[in-house]
Amino acid sequence: MAFTRILLLAFTLLFTTQTLTAQVLTSKSYGNGIVVSADYHASEIGKQILQQGGNAVDAAVAVQFALAVTLPRAGNIGGGGFMVVHLADGETNTLDFREKAPERATRNMYVRNGEFKSDLSWEGILAVGVPGTVDGMVKAIERYGRMPLDMVIQPAIKLAREGYTLSYTQAQDLNNHKDTFKKYQASARYFTTGDSTLFEEGDLFVQEDLAQTLERIARFGREGFYSGPVADAIVNEMSRYRGLISYRDLRNYESVWREPIVADFLGYKLHIMPPPSSGSVAIAQILEMIDDYPLAEMGHNSAEYVHVVSEAMRRAFADRSYYLGDPDFIDIPMEELLSEEYNNDRMASFSADQATTSESLEHGEITGFLESSETTHFSIVDKDGNAVSVTTTLNGSFGSHVSVSGAGFLLNNEMDDFSAQPGEPNAYGLIGAEANAIEPGKRMLSSMSPTIVTRDGKVDMVLGAAGGPRIITATLQSFLNKAVFGMRSQQATAQPRFHHQWLPDMIFFDDFGLSPDTQQALEERGHRLFPMPGIGRAHNIYVDQNGDLNSGVDPRGDGHASGY
Ligand code: GLY
Questions:
Q1: 541 in helix, strand or coil?
Q2: Number of helices and strands (H, E) in the chain?
Q3: Distance between Cα 320 and ligand 1 center (Å)
């Protein structure tokens, strides 16, 4: 069973992520402002907003809307995400614009004849959560921006209306999903050529309906999306395919400001998105579990290092599935999970010579195993030292694949991030995941882990990644590569990474990383190893002591750094 799922995962990853490309990236350094995102146009737009006097939040809102145009597989207005803001005056805040389950959602809505039907939560109208992005962007700019909303959306409107030329990857992404788009009227119109031909690199991609929707948002703010013609179009789409989202769901959607989780490590302070992001708790736990070990002496990606960090990952992921969910619905024992005593206790069973078996660790279940690798992350620092870290998603590549007819955008499939069938034993015979069970109005647990790291009160790193549960371990390693091993930005981001998520009981590693000797030494300790094409895709910024802003663009994708 487990092996079949692993093959399925490998297959999914091969066809939904970009693998390591041949591009050789060198770090770029800027003095004033920098934007690192998954897409050239979006990074350039963010830079222009900074140059026009906007701050990092203005630029972030512009980038989010630009990605909705140029990266339809993950950038969105029909999805959600998380934002971490750190202002130069020391204020840090986080914004949760994660989707919510519609009011008519029920605990077992994907169970038929006692069996969980994963196709229903993955593709089509029932997979859609109430979108949060537009409310989030409006709230962010109202609270922290300097520019009016309509000004920062203009570049995205122009790109949608006038079009942009598809890159090779963008054309392939669309073509790879053609058969699924064809099942949904509006998606067939928006995201296929409309005949038997395929998109090609260099084709002009125009999205007039999306331009009009963005114009409504520019003019009316959140009302331009959650009421009026766009809301009508969303509800009509629900009627067409028998979906659940109502006018009331749209009207009631609210993004939420939340206190970040703060973790201390080697003089650095990590400010991380709190639940419903699971990444914050997991990263903080892992750091607490490994901080007594001589990591630098072990050597980067040595067998000893991979062993101890993987064992900490294993333990944190076991806790993640059991304890974490939407904090507005469940009580998370946060103080205990983050305490030194608890995490030391979790590592009491650690052996330097032998892998712990996941079977012997309590808690958790495998809902995260097949989490999508899609999602996108961007990082921004402005000339005043304000920083923003945003991870945003439709969940799977192109989300539910259902587009809103007349409004030009795709809807998410975020409902798949809830626990599949809580209370029932999973493939491993474990019962858990109650914390992340579906409830009306609840947010689904996420792995997205936007993070801002400060040192002596100043921004030192802006971190984050795409990649399902691998977001957590990729972000952790982007941090450790600088904090422990003193790597420069591009090196820290490009290094081979590894990932353990408790179940399945194995270390996944970048298929271009980990030497044969290291693999052998890990196997001798009892680890099973599984090479994968890309453990996360990170878009990081690292700040030098002299204030230089350095890009960390992941060579596993098509990301781009723009600065001045
Ligand atoms: N849908 C990916 C995540 O939220 O982690």
A1: strand
A2: 21, 22
A3: 14
Asked whether the beta carbons of 488 and 504 are under 8 A apart, the reply is: no
For residue 393 and ligand 1, the question of a CB distance below 6 A is answered with yes
């691998």: which residue's tokens? 470
Q: Which of 473, 538, 392, 457 is nearest to 78 (CA)?
A: 392
In the chain, CATH 1.10.246.130 sits at: 258-368+449-485+511-542
What letter represents residue 326's amino acid?
Answer: D
Residue whose entry in the numeric block shows the structure tokens 């101890």: 308
Report the candidate in 386, 368, 356 with the shortest Cα–Cα distance to residue 428.
368
Q: What are the tens digits of pLDDT across the range 200-258? A: 999 999 999 999 999 999 999 999 999 999 999 999 999 999 999 999 999 999 999 99
Residue 252's alpha-carbon distances to 17, 95, 135, 392, 487, in angstroms, are 34, 17, 11, 21, 46
Atom of ligand 1 nearest to the CA of 98: 4
| Residue 272, Cβ density class (10 Å: 0-12 exposed, 13-18 middle, ≥19 buried) | buried
Q: Compute the distance between CA of residue 433 and CA of residue 427 in angstroms, rounded to an integer.
A: 13
Which DSSP category does 277 fall into? B
Three-state SS for 324-358 is CCCCCCCCCCHHHHHCHHHHHHHHHHCCCCCCCCH
Residue with tokens 């077992």: 108
Q: What average pLDDT is seen over the chain? A: 92
Residue 516: helix, strand or coil by DSSP?
Answer: helix
Q: What type of residue is 425?
A: P
Q: Which atom of ligand 1 is nearest to the CA of 444?
A: 4
Strands 529-532 vs 507-510: parallel, antiparallel or unpaired: parallel
CA-nearest residue for atom 1, ligand 1, is 395
Mean pLDDT throughout 45-55? 98
- Catalytically active residues are 375
Q: Which amino acid is at 336?
A: E
* CA dist., res. 366 & res. 350, Å (int): 22
Tell me which CATH code domain 258-368+449-485+511-542 carries.
Answer: 1.10.246.130
Helix 470-483 and helix 303-323, axial crossing angle in degrees, nearest 10 = 140
